[in-house]
Amino acid sequence: MTGRLVVVGASYAGTQLAFSARDHGFAGEVVMLGEEARMPYQRPPLSKAYLQGKMAPPAMLLRAEAAFRRAAIELRLGERAVAINRAAREVVLADGRRLAYTKLALTTGARVRRLSVSGQNLAGIHHLRDMGDADALAAAAATARRAVVIGGGFIGLEVAASLRTLGLEVVVVEPLDRLLKRCFPPLLSDWTLALHRRHGVDVRLGATVAAILGDAGRVCGVHLGSGDEIAGDLVVVGVGVDANDELARDAGLRTDRGIVVDAHGMTSDPSIAAAGDCTARLDLEGSQPGGGLIRIQSVQNATEQARAAGATLAGTPTLHLVQPWFWSDQYDAKFQMVGHGSPDDEIVLRGDPESGKFSLFHFRDRRLVAVDSVGAIRDHMTARKLLAHGTELAAHQAGDAGIDLESFCRAASR
Ligand SMILES: Cc1cc2nc3c(=O)[nH]c(=O)nc-3n(C[C@H](O)[C@H](O)[C@H](O)COP(=O)(O)OP(=O)(O)OC[C@H]3O[C@@H](n4cnc5c(N)ncnc54)[C@H](O)[C@@H]3O)c2cc1C
């Protein structure tokens, strides 16, 4: 296939999509536009090793510059697309120039949600999405004493763990009555709460933020809905992200809190694909209770969806099969999740939470649908195979430490 593929967004999804299109024979020009002025890099370390000063930017590149050159992928960094003219098949750039496309891919990711409370614009309030945010947060952490982290989701908890590791006092404010309530079963929420409290973090559950308090233009604390005040000279807001779907919406593509794509990563326009955090994927397999649209923000989802979309754009229709997995590192605990868990699943424990190595197997209608592991890499890897092969596993077998699941899986797939 010839012509020009324009990829808007230069991160996990954009990079993978461009390389996939090449690997599947796209022979025309490939141009990748990235608003950030740096080479595509890994985001997960920003709240973990990078924030703690244990990892440097060169180790975080997604691919070396030479790899882009070899694949003849033209990287245009520091360039923002502001509109798509589908009738003329052009992307409009911030400086007014226009770039014609034969095929277009939207991999614009997501942006952090902001709080709308009084004091939200004070100096000393941080969000975390890109390397610039992480640099600003690390610089502030170097002189701060007490951080208030608003939001007890993955990013909030990872930041809390990193700031604690750096020696700050840390308070986490979470509006729900348990941590990660939408993803974790109660046992895992409780274990995570105990982990943070053991490391000295003051976790406030069921606590809402009414205002951020300031003194001479700088943050000095947080006022809770309960009337309590928490002092702090650094505030980190981690209350979720919203898909960057405006370009698509303004161009008349179907969006619904994300650019709606099918299982090939194609939008409602057959010349335009989308992948990664900016998408909402049609749940044609009924992977989630209730079906509808699947919105996943993870490296694996961005990469796999982009792999399928790039191949499809290049003329090899490829399905993005949804078996999501995700990880989070907090202190020395490694969390690994696979599948589509839901709060109503039947949960079976394998291993001993006291030992810090255990897994929770989720069953729905007696079928294994997800596994959450802590410090149990083998369980996680086996769970990925069990779920991928659709291996039948009974709840009592999942909980029986005497059954070697790896051999069970191998035997079942023969
Ligand atoms: C601090 C942090 C920790 C994380 N930890 C984990 C983890 O442990 N495990 C995990 O699986 N996931 C983690 N994630 C999530 C993971 O990083 C994202 O799911 C992943 O980056 C999504 O990739 P993407 O390419 O879809 O979007 P993004 O990485 O968001 O990239 C989108 C890019 O497009 C650019 N862009 C947007 N609009 C335009 C435009 N109009 N023109 C040009 N460029 C544009 C943006 O500037 C950005 O560079 C973490 C994320 C963060 C922020």
Strand runs, count: 26
Radius of gyration: 22 Å
Structural class: alpha/beta
CATH class division of the largest domain: Alpha Beta
Distance between the termini: 40 Å
CATH architectural designation of the largest domain? 3-Layer(bba) Sandwich
The tally of helices reads: 10
- The fraction of residues assigned to DSSP E strands is 25-35%
Low-confidence stretches: none
Biggest sheet, spatial arrangement of strands:
3-2-1-7-19
**How many separate structural domains?**
3
Bound molecules: flavin-adenine dinucleotide
Helical content class? 10-25%
CATH topology of the largest domain: FAD/NAD(P)-binding domain
CATH superfamily of the largest domain: FAD/NAD(P)-binding domain
Shape from CA axes? globular
The largest sheet is: 5 strands, parallel
Average residue-wise pLDDT: 95
InterPro entries: FAD-oxidoreductase/Apoptosis, FAD/NAD-bd_sf, FAD/NAD-binding_dom, FAD/NAD-linked_Rdtase_dimer_sf, Reductase_C
Cofactor: FAD
Organism: Azospirillum oleiclasticum
Keywords: FAD, Flavoprotein, Oxidoreductase
Description:
It comes from Azospirillum oleiclasticum. Keywords: FAD, Flavoprotein, Oxidoreductase. The protein is α/β, with parallel strands linked by helices and 414 residues long. The chain folds into 3 domains: 4-111 and 242-313, FAD/NAD(P)-binding domain; 125-239, FAD/NAD(P)-binding domain (3-Layer(bba) Sandwich); 332-412, Enolase-like, domain 1. The protein is 24% helix and 30% strand. Strand 4 (81-85) and strand 5 (90-93) form a beta hairpin. Helix 1 packs parallel to helix 7. It is globular. The structure holds flavin-adenine dinucleotide. Flavin-adenine dinucleotide (FAD) binds at residues 8-14, 33-36, 43-44, 46-47, 80-81, 107-110, 128-129, 155, 244, 247, 276-277, 297-300, 302, 326-328.
